[in-house]
Design brief:
21% of the residues lie in helices and 17% in strands. With 347 residues, the chain is α+β, with helices and mostly antiparallel strands.
C-alpha cells in the first residue's frame, strides 16, 4: 500500500467513525430524557455530548489529513520512482513446410515486405541547449524520476487536476508532473519538449528544490503553436536521461489574428518646369511731319539680351514681363545741296 492509498483509507475510516459517533450521541441524549433518576440521566447526557464532541474532532482530523497528510508523509518517506520495463518485440519465425515431392520451380518468389528491427536511439541533449549549462555541481548517481503525468492544471501541492494523454485544441497551459528522489541541490537539470523531431520548448537550470518530492515542467505557448501531433517530454539530470512521457494534441490550432502594419506612402516629388520668356523686339517708327521733302527715317531697335533665370521652387513662380525702356531716336536732317550754276561762254 502506497502513501496515497493509506491516506485515503484513513480518511474513509474517520468518516465512518464520525457517522457512528453522531448516531450514538443523538440516541444517548434522547434516551436520557426519559430516565427518572437524575444521576443516570446526567451520565447518559454526558456520554452523548462526549460522542458528539469527539465526532467534531474527527471532522477536523479528516480535513487536516486530506490537506496536509500526504505532503508531510513524503518528507519522512521520499517517493520512489517506479521503473517501467520496456517490452522488446521478438519476431517469431514462420514454419516453412517442406513438400514431400520436390518440384523444380520456374519462378522464385521474393517477399515484398522484410521485417527489419528498428533501433530506438537513447535521448540526448542538443548542443544548443548544452551550451546554456550554468551549474558546476556533479549530479548524484542515485537521482531517480517517476513517469510524467500530463495535466492542464495543478494545485498548490503540485497535484494534477485534469490529467490525460490526449488533449483537444486549444490546449493552453500544459504541465508535466513527476516525483523525484536523490536529487543534489545545484545540479543541472533539463526538460525538453519535442513535437516529432522538432524541439518546441526547453528549460535548463540548476536544481533549487529539495532532494525528494513533487516537481513539474510546463509550457504555455501562443494558441497557434499547439499544432496537432505526437509530443514527448524528456527529463535529464546533467547529461543523463531520467524520464520520458508522451501525449497527443488533436484538432487544428487556432489561427493567429493578423496585426495591422502601417505602410508609408510615397510623397510625390514636384517637377520643376522652367519657362523662358524672350525679351520682345521693339520697333519704333518716328515720323517727321514738318519735313516732308526729306527722307523718312525708320530706326529699328532690337534688344537681344536674355533675362537672368531665378532658382526654381516647387511652387509656381510668376514671371513678370520686362519693362521696355523708351528709346528716343535722334533724327539728323541733311539738307539738300544748293546747285551750282556754271556760265557757259558764248562764242
Amino acid at each position: 500500500m502506497d502513501i496515497r492509498t493509506f491516506i485515503q483509507v484513513l480518511i474513509g475510516l474517520c468518516i465512518l467513525g464520525i457517522i457512528l459517533l453522531l448516531i450514538l450521541g443523538v440516541r444517548s441524549i434522547r434516551s436520557a430524557r426519559g430516565l427518572k433518576f437524575f444521576r443516570m440521566r446526567r451520565d447518559r447526557m454526558v456520554r452523548g455530548w462526549r460522542a458528539i464532541f469527539f465526532s467534531v474532532f474527527l471532522i477536523l482530523v479528516v480535513f487536516a489529513v486530506g490537506r496536509f497528510g500526504e505532503p508531510i508523509a513524503y518528507q519522512f518517506f521520499p517517493p520512489t520512482a517506479t521503473v517501467t520495463a520496456t517490452p522488446t518485440i521478438t519476431l517469431t519465425p514462420t514454419i516453412s513446410l517442406t513438400p514431400t515431392i520436390s518440384l523444380t520451380p520456374t519462378i522464385t518468389l521474393t517477399p515484398a515486405v522484410t521485417d527489419t528491427p528498428t533501433i530506438t536511439p537513447t535521448p540526448s541533449i542538443p548542443l544548443g541547449v548544452e551550451v546554456l549549462f550554468e551549474s558546476t555541481v556533479t549530479p548524484g548517481p542515485d537521482a531517480i524520476f517517476s513517469d510524467l503525468i500530463f495535466t492542464q492544471g495543478i494545485d498548490e501541492d503540485f497535484q494534477p487536476q485534469a490529467p490525460g494523454e490526449i488533449f483537444q485544441n486549444p490546449v493552453g497551459h500544459l504541465y508535466a508532473v513527476f516525483t523525484y528522489d536523490g536529487m543534489t541541490v545545484g545540479a543541472q537539470w533539463t526538460a525538453l519538449w519535442w513535437r516529432g523531431d522538432d524541439l518546441v520548448n526547453f528549460e535548463t537550470a540548476p536544481w533549487e528544490a529539495g532532494t525528494g518530492g513533487y516537481g513539474y515542467t510546463d509550457w504555455n505557448p501562443p494558441p497557434e503553436e499547439w499544432l496537432p501531433g505526437e509530443y514527448q517530454v524528456q527529463v535529464f539530470v546533467g547529461h543523463e536521461w531520467k524520464s520520458v512521457g508522451f501525449f497527443t494534441v488533436e484538432g487544428e490550432a487556432p489561427t493567429a489574428e493578423p496585426t495591422a502594419t502601417a505602410t508609408a506612402s510615397a510623397t510625390p516629388t514636384p517637377t520643376r518646369t522652367a519657362t523662358q520668356t524672350p525679351w520682345p523686339t521693339i520697333t519704333r517708327t518716328p515720323t517727321v511731319a514738318s519735313q516732308t521733302p526729306y527722307p523718312t527715317l525708320t530706326p529699328t531697335t532690337t534688344n537681344t539680351s536674355l533675362p537672368t533665370l531665378l532658382p526654381l521652387t516647387p511652387t509656381p513662380t510668376l514671371t513678370r514681363q520686362p519693362l521696355a525702356t523708351p528709346i528716343t531716336p535722334t533724327v539728323t536732317i541733311t539738307r539738300w545741296p544748293t546747285p551750282t550754276r556754271t556760265a557757259t561762254p558764248t562764242p
